[in-house]
Amino acid sequence: MKTGETRIKILLVEDDVNLGFLMVEFLESKGFEVKLYRDGISGLKGFESGKYDFCILDIMLPGLDGFSLAGKIREINPDTPMIFLTARSMKEDKIKGFRLGIDDYVTKPFDEDELYCRIMAIMNRVQQGGPAKGDNTFLKIGRYTFDPANQLLALGSNTRRLTLKENKILCKLAGSMNNIVSREEIMNEVWGSSDYYTGRSLDVFISKIRNYLNEDHSLKITTIPTIGYILMVEKNRENS
Fold it and tell me: For the chain, where are the alpha helices, taking DSSP H only?
């Protein structure tokens, strides 16, 4: 994923080596540039010496815990978006994190697509100049507001709760707005296979999502035969 012509650069601080490498591989497959650090002190030094657009921080880190690391990063650059990635789900931890200026909080174990959606939702708001802090993350799709964490698609006062598969598919399309998302990639990530019958199911889900978005004429899901789909936004018609 790119911001303009520049790749989004992510600072990832995670002391679980296996999880860290898996996250790097996943995020790089999405087009991000990722630098992994395994403790809070090296993560802070990395942030001080580099230029990062986004931070993903574990809380339970050796040397310097995630709360302390986030506070020091905020002293250096108060505007860098951050997500806490942790096995701890206590309400007090979340409140402490948000008071430090954390943008979101993802609890292990987590779905990679959910993490991707949350990153893109935060970056989308930052790029549009909207509020970047808070417990909820949203993607703006034309006139619609998409809340992937709660599987909600809203237009004005009308809100629809999506099924899990609908939510994942729309998340992938919205996360790559105006770019092709391959059929095989969607099928493998949503269904775990890419056979003929899964393809037919995907066609049905795409048709449903098209119907959900049909009240905004600036939006269009284009099928690229045998390749995939593009969720397109015609900016000149966005407010019509």
Answer: 17-29, 40-49, 66-76, 91-99, 112-127, 164-175, 183-190, 196-212
Q: Does domain 2-127 fall into CATH 3.40.50.2300?
A: yes
Would you say the C-alpha torsion 194, 199, 201, 207 has a positive or negative sign?
positive
User: How much is the mean pLDDT over the chain?
Assistant: 85
- Domain ranges within the chain, ordered by starting residue: 2-127, 139-237
4: pLDDT strictly greater than 60? no
pLDDT grade for 140, boundaries at 50, 70 and 90: confident
Distance between CA 230 and CA 115 in Å, rounded?
A: 21
pLDDT at 67 over 80: yes
Q: Which two tokens stand for residue 99?
A: 């008071």
- Residue 25 near residue 53, CB atoms below 8 Å: no
- What architecture does CATH give domain 139-237? Orthogonal Bundle (1.10)
Q: Mean pLDDT across the stretch 205-223?
A: 94
Q: Which pTM value belongs to this model? A: 0.58
Angle at the Cα of 87 (from 46 to 170), degrees rounded to 5? 85
